[in-house]
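Supplementary Methods S3. Input chains for the assembly prediction are listed below.
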Amino acid sequence: MKITIKDIAKATNVSYSTVSKALNDSPLVKPDTKQFILEKANELGYTPNYSAKYLVTKRTNTIGLVWPEINRLALSELASQVNVQMKKQHKQMLLSINDALDSIDLFSKMRVDGMLLFEEDLPQDQLPKTLDVPLLSYGVPSVNQFPTIGVKHELAMELAVQELVRCQNQSIAYVGVIGGSGRRQQAKEKGFARAMEKNSMEPLFIQTNGLDVGDALREVRKYLKEQPIPNSMICSSYDIAIGTYRALHQSGLKVPEDVSLISYDNIPQFEETDVPISAVGVPVERLAKTLVDELVHLIEKPEHTHSGCELIPELVVRRSSQNVR
Amino acid sequence: MKITIKDIAKATNVSYSTVSKALNDSPLVKPDTKQFILEKANELGYTPNYSAKYLVTKRTNTIGLVWPEINRLALSELASQVNVQMKKQHKQMLLSINDALDSIDLFSKMRVDGMLLFEEDLPQDQLPKTLDVPLLSYGVPSVNQFPTIGVKHELAMELAVQELVRCQNQSIAYVGVIGGSGRRQQAKEKGFARAMEKNSMEPLFIQTNGLDVGDALREVRKYLKEQPIPNSMICSSYDIAIGTYRALHQSGLKVPEDVSLISYDNIPQFEETDVPISAVGVPVERLAKTLVDELVHLIEKPEHTHSGCELIPELVVRRSSQNVR
DNA sequence: ATGAAAGCGCTAACAC
DNA sequence: GTGTTAGCGCTTTCAT
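Predicted structure tokens for the full assembly:
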């Protein structure tokens, strides 16, 4: 059977409220007593019961990350960084990889202090009308009913396009999901279209029909066989970039000599690819820190809620785009 | 403020114990009453409090997955599959990506019904002496103090070696972490050495010093420059295989024409690579199902515990090894 | 079929 | 400093 504070109380001949105080390192307990109690607790193998604790404190000190798409590298990296930031804030992070609605439901019942949502396709109408757990989403602000941290996708795409134009690429293709329902993907696509318009260039699109490496590999390969080869490409994510690179490589095209590449997502992994890949996006640590800070703020001061913001992306030039035509 | 069953009781003019019964779909409540209560509950936006519930039922219906290494694709895939299987068993799965000891601690305090451990480097002595939550580990049985599901790594390596020998490869190199502390990695390495011995061949080793794609890419590339090129390679994991393939490709070597490849890890993603890669290992769904079934068994019937077993791996031949020299 | 009441493990007033 | 006690939200006997 599980050890409770009452067991410790018996073993130490004090009342169980004293045990409670001792375990919480209250100054109201004499150091000797505290010491003794702590030793006994340890000896008995006591493990605090968070449920009981929560019931009275109303705090779980835990936040839930809703993350249905577990195998996108860029999100993986973001999750790791968020975890690091949470630790700094002395919050425990729990993940759920069920579908978003189920996860939100579970975390609500668990009464986590707050939730972080990595999901863009949430059917808004299916959400619980009243959610009494603070929820912060990583997505596209103003489309959502809850606070959202986003990225100035339009600016990101403009930075990429400008850089490619500067290197005198005559044609630029966007590789990614076109016309999908994911809001972040939509924003990138639209941002690209705008940026091209501003630069009076004809936008090209390579539809990947999915976000996996394999999707990009397949579709880019097909495209290269059927269409004239563009000077340069902008990939919508890390995984897409990897697939695109492989497709080019297989087709005997060199990066950046034959085709220049810039990818969305600002993560260090772009450094380690075969040819280091240029990237635009909000550096992942900054993104993670903002998400965590904002969520903590939401939890601590629900009254003055800013409903979200859009972060400024940065361009990191690497070899994949360094070729002036 | 949060709605409790007492609020619903007030709103429906019944006692709160009746509300509790109604919410739990007890047959002791008249259908009409039940219906009415359920409607009211829904209307008020009631969300059950799992902490309170646990306190009396002693069941969370939740299991925790301890998973410190979030970005190994093969484990990612395993986690997804485990999640699917858990759902079938009507258990909620929660992940923690903190380091193993911290995660175990957290899940213990949360009183999850059970824990699954994807971690091989656990310092056994630092573990809580008495863990009163059932813990099942994915690793190497008999080395661990707790129940463990493993894989017959030796057999896996033998299958791979035999297949390469059958295709008359004269030399076989093992690509992976050599002499590391990870038990699964150790088992693979040792299995390879044994299998080579049995076949009277001299084992070659390519030390990757890490488990990332980048580690393999870097080290294999270096090896190819300095050493004679082996006929064939056995990669210790999916990520290692991807890195190895890239290194070969960069060095102008064709798979399988110049070098044959077989990788450990039996996941569908090997189908989608550039050249489909042959693989040995326990198919991931079977692995996931075994882990979940075993853990559930451990939770339900802690008395007769089998302390673990080793699953039989299978060989899947794809293009990467189909070349008779 | 419904209600009253005990109690799960814990914290936080408050009393001593 | 330490003990007493109420109560968090819920399930579960046990009465009615």
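The interface with chain A takes residues 2, 45, 47-52, 54-55, 70-71, 73, 76-77, 79-80, 83, 87, 92-98, 106, 108-111, 128-130, 132, 212-214, 217, 246, 249-250, 269, 272, 274 of chain B (CB under 8 Å). The domain at 5-47 of chain B is CATH 1.10.260.40 (434 Repressor (Amino-terminal Domain)).
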